[in-house]
């Protein structure tokens, strides 16, 4: 005997609505972008492999997980997961290489927003998103897709430019001098609406091919102290930070210099301190330039190993700047508020997830 089930129209409508309102099967809560429960950031990340040109989800999680994706945080598609799994491993993701993607990770104990920190650029080595870092005194996280740091943009490909336009990147701050710009002019995405020049010229470091590694380190430490004590440099950093505060809104800003490690590294530190990120995390972000720039400056370091400090960053460099700030201003917060004109509360409200 055959049986059929007749579903009343009203019941069918309720059924369809409930299917479209996706829920976390582990907690029965409605799925939406953000962070809940356990901090998953140390056990899950989206990585772009420069060698294989492959984006992958890297997990050291225990238990089941599901990963959703979308071209903006607000458009993450919770209808169809990109990938599901159980436990740790590296899992390739099939996504376009000319568009920015954001991801929501769902587990039984928590959820997290993820994205590539190092952007998949063929023509830049050190272009990174400052999002995803947890603040030291709360459960808030820095917003993805708002503030980016980079080395020079002179060799970006068309695919790179399309990718940056998909963010969309709207404001560019350039810390390079006119001489640097003339040597390597930026290639810019069509999405840009504002270009701000904030040239910081540290002058002659007194280094030549025969300088010792110790002399290079001493010169770099002086450079970092200069960046946070020289009135002209402070003015340029203040001008950059002004682009991220009222009256400006809804900007996706990228700041850069030539290597994206010294002038840019200090700017990134200022932003992360203003957002309440802990100093250890800020130092780790600063030191990431060593891995990202390894290929770019490999030949220079091979030819002049004694000058490697010019092409890398060291913990002592940033520490010297922070010590100088504290000596001159008492605290980092005083420096940010009084010298760089950062309204810290407004800044955090704007660039931290609630």
Residues in helix, %: 25-40%
Mean pLDDT: 92
Assign an overall shape.
Answer: globular
CATH class of the largest domain: Alpha Beta
Structural class: alpha+beta
Based on DSSP secondary structure assignment, what is the total number of beta strands?
A: 13
The CATH level-2 architecture of the largest domain is identified as Alpha-Beta Complex
Number of domains: 2
Order of strands in the sheet with the most strands? 1-8-7-4-5
CATH-defined topology of the largest domain: Protein-Tyrosine Phosphatase, Chain A
- Rg computed from alpha carbons, rounded to a whole number of angstroms: 23 Å
Please give the count of helices: 11
By CATH, the superfamily of the largest domain comes out as: Protein tyrosine phosphatase superfamily
GO molecular function: phosphoprotein phosphatase activity
InterPro entries: Prot-tyrosine_phosphatase-like, Tyr/Ser_Pase_IphP-type, Tyr_Pase_AS
Pfam families: Y_phosphatase3
Signal peptide: 1-23
